[in-house]
Amino acid sequence: MIDFLDYIVNHSWDILRLSTSFMVLGLGLFFLYICRVIYHATRLIKKVNSVLDNFNHYIRKPVLVLLTAHKFITKLFRIFGIGKNE
Q1: Is 47 in a helix, a strand, or coil?
Q2: Which of 1, 35, 51, 80 has the fewest C-beta atoms under 10 angstroms from its C-beta?
Q3: Nearest CA among 62, 42, 66 for reference residue 54
Q4: Averaged pLDDT, 50-66
Q5: b/e per residue, 36-65, with b = 16+ CB within 10 A?
Q6: Separation of alpha carbons 57 and 62, rounded Å
Q7: Can you give the pLDDT at residue 84?
Q8: Ordered alpha helix ranges (H), the chain
Q9: What pTM, to 2 d.p., does this model score?
Q10: pLDDT tens, residue by residue, 2-40
Q11: CB-based contact 8:15 (threshold 8 Å)
């Protein structure tokens, strides 16, 4: 046990350098992983944005046109008295 402690004390600088290099390597890999996650998140956000734009163009606008036409036709029916239960 004493030999092991003597080895640790005598080579503490080398052990510290080695552990620091492993720490820097780990931080670099962690940084690369975070960059990858951010890259995939931005791609996903762009796809969702594209889907929402398609929804706006192909669904929302025609529905708004139909609602506007419905309001206009309802006003015309009121003006001419069509559709009243008399």
Answers
A1: helix
A2: 1
A3: 62
A4: 88
A5: eeeeeeeeeeeeeeeeeeeeeeeeeeeeee
A6: 8
A7: 62
A8: 2-10, 12-55, 61-80
A9: 0.56
A10: 888 888 889 899 999 999 999 999 999 999 999 999 999
A11: yes
